[in-house]
Amino acid sequence: MMREEIVFGPIFSRRLGSSLGINLLPERGKLCNFDCIYCECGWNRDGLDDRYVPTAGDLRKALTAKLEECAAKGTPIDSITFSGDGEPTLNPDFAEIIDITLELRDRFYPSSVVSVLSNATMVCRDEVFNALRKVDNPIMKIDAPTAQLAARINRPQGHYDVEEIVKGLLRFEGDFVLQTMFLRSPDFDSSSPEVLGPWMDIVRRLRPREIMAYTIDRETPMKGLEKISAEEMALLLKPLSDEGFKIQIKG
Ligand code: SF4
């Protein structure tokens, strides 16, 4: 599912309510340094005809127009959400774009939150981290506790070291949301003790203020993937909820 505009929606999100989406990636293509087997935007190789990424100026214009229109119609917006067709922090203007978005949010919808869905790969860069620190919901992905498993699930397009990402995320001092996809394929099983145990160790180090556990919801580029039900996830994550972690499960 590709979004063609910089600002789209609002759409109903099972995680965020009425969510106005922002796509900082090309209009007709996906741009990501992961190529997840479950990505709703399909494989990277299938969407490379358009490389134009919106600038801070493009975003200001599009977001102002949309927020003016929604405010005039009385459309509710719970979250202004950076998601889109790829990884938003790859946009070279990301930090400036966050500042503009916060300014416009304060002007038009002061009670809505700003959320960024990110694969966390750029969190070690100070400029990206400092921008993520300013938003209400930095929602950062760790699906796999080892580089070997990440290679199967997320298929990073370059160097990826889970320990480096964990160190980057530790700088949030727990003030972020961790998102993790749970699924099974013929090659691996997110619910197996070899995966779950080390992933929980990472959670205990990071102490995120919330965990969003979810599973596949739509058609996936890799076939043969299996959902893990909400009930099963709740059971798997019970040790963490017993320890006081706040967990949101979307089956
Ligand atoms: S990180 Fe997100 S956008 Fe990138 S490939 Fe994975 S699911 Fe798709």
Report on the structure:
With 251 residues, this protein is α/β, with parallel strands linked by helices. It has one domain (7-250): TIM Barrel (Alpha-Beta Barrel), CATH 3.20.20. The chain is built from eight helices and ten strands. Helix 1 runs parallel beside helix 2 and helix 2 (94-108) runs parallel beside helix 3. Bound molecules: iron/sulfur cluster. Iron/sulfur cluster is lined by residues 32, 34-36, 39, 41, 86-87, 119.
Q: Which characteristics define this entry?
A:
8-stranded mixed β-sheet; binds iron/sulfur cluster; two-stranded antiparallel ribbon; TIM Barrel; alpha/beta; globular; 251 residues
